[in-house]
Amino acid sequence: MAKNLLDEQQLEKATERQKVVGGLIGDNLVALGFISREKLEEILGEAPPIPKTIAETGLDAQFLLNIVLKAMYVAGHQTIPEISNHTKLGRLIIEELLQIAKKDALIEVRGAADANFTLLRHNLTSAGRERASEGLRQCQYVGPAPVPLADYQTQTQKQSITHERINAETLSRALSHLVLSKEISRRLGPAINSGRAILFYGSPGNGKTSIAEAIGHTFKQNIYIPYCVEADGQIIKIFDSAVHQENSSLPILEHSNTDSIYLRLPEFDPRWVRCHRPVIISGGELTLQMLDLQFDPNSKYYEAPLQVKATGGIFIIDDFGRQLVRPQDLLNRWIYPLERKIDYLILHTGKKFDLHFDQLVIFGTNIPPGQLMDEALLRRVHYKLQINPPGVEDYKEIFRRICHFYKLELSDEILSYLLNSFYPLRKMPLACFHPKFIVEHAIAACNFDNSPPCLTLDLVKDALENLVVSRPAA
pLDDT, tens digit, for every residue of 350-379? Predict the structure, then answer.
């Protein structure tokens, strides 16, 4: 609508159709002929535009000035390229802010920074240092300038995970390293494309976590994640190099260093980072507090919760039911977000705001689902896939792949012993993790004996002693 490609009446008709037939609002707009598929994909794929003025950043001039003054005070930056590189604000915006600072006697020009007198050094005056100190007392964040919450909301809608469709070929390629039944592969595709919560359940060691991680490799589109967001005057850090994998294909120009006046022209707003869709895994350490904004009373800014960092990607909750928080409490926290795709966060000031809950949530558990949640909660998890132990042929295929990877020979004698003697006598079900477990123990024994790695029946029997724990008699 902002581009005058749609009017309110067309959007209303598409929304009404969506309520009847479902699907994405964009798909309904295309089906009604209000916009072409090509134009829709072009709009959804647009990167955050580069602001050229203070007004275009969407932030208050004095707010940005504090960001600049703190960067000069803490990091000692003096030239426009240095300040621009640190704050991720364009040169014209920095010049505009420095002009305001000069008028308020917060900075002064102290001469040239290079032999050609093309770069000027700017120093804080005593008033500027006091302003920077006061800014640090209010908030110690010193880094890239934030983006407005509204801009973040718009961008997350455009790059929603539901806008990237996964086909059978892509899914098959991502799962090719796993041995799965045809039924699981067939049911996975619709579950992934729905963007709805998925529950993997079944006995341990049969690939629930491996499948969930592999799903993350099916998505190929880039998304844009801001370093931080401004909400009601507060700063919330979102970009996390530990979970966000930057995908930068920008060419490094000859004059792209911070000592040059020739700054590299960016493709998009530098306050954002172009990344692969994130895949975040949390296990037994997950608590309810980790799903809320984390305010540091010393630094006086926020760290975004895990589900916000996972926005546009995949959030895997492994070993569901073994967290420090009860599974019912966790799901009660997420009943509305899972159903309506909207989450609510609260600042320490009491200000409440909503964010798009846009990620593929995958639960993995070896506890029967009925013991974890009631019918009302089960209804919120739209897709439930039981991951069963492998059949005999799948077990053999897993064992062959593991041995091929480690360059070991797998004899028929070993398979015959396992399938005809060990498992039947122990009354133990097959498991996907057993072949790797056995092979790694055999290799460890060979390494200890200083002998070439091999797989013999004796080594397999020794490895199996570590697989089975004898229970004391009653």
Answer: 999 999 999 999 999 999 999 998 888 888
Task: Judge if pTM exceeds 0.85.
Answer: yes
pLDDT digits (tens, 9 = 90+) for 113-143: 665 556 888 899 999 999 999 999 999 999 9
Instruction: Please tell me the predicted confidence (pLDDT) of residue 258.
Output: 47
Three-state secondary structure string covering the chain: CCCCCCCHHHHHHHHHHHHHHCCCHHHHHHHCCCCCHHHHHHHHCCCCCCCCCHHHHCCCHHHHHHHHHHHHHHHCCCCHHHHHHHHCCCHHHHHHHHHHHHHCCCEEEEEECCCCCCCEEEEECHHHHHHHHHHHHHCCCCCCCCEEHHHHHHHHHHCCHHHCCCCHHHHHHHCCCCCCCHHHHHHHHHHHHHCCCEEEECCCCCCHHHHHHHHHCCCCCEEEEECEEEECCEEEECCCCCCCCECCCCCCCCCCCCCCCCCCCCCCCCCEEEEECCEEEECCCCCHHHHCCEECCCCCCEECCHHHHCCCCEEEECCCCCCCCCHHHHHHHHHHHHHHCEEEEECCCCCEEEEECCCEEEEEECCCHHHHCCHHHHHHCCEEEECCCCCHHHHHHHHHHHHHHCCCCCCHHHHHHHHHHHHHHHCCCCCCCHHHHHHHHHHHHHHHCCCCCCCCHHHHHHHHHCCCCCCCCC
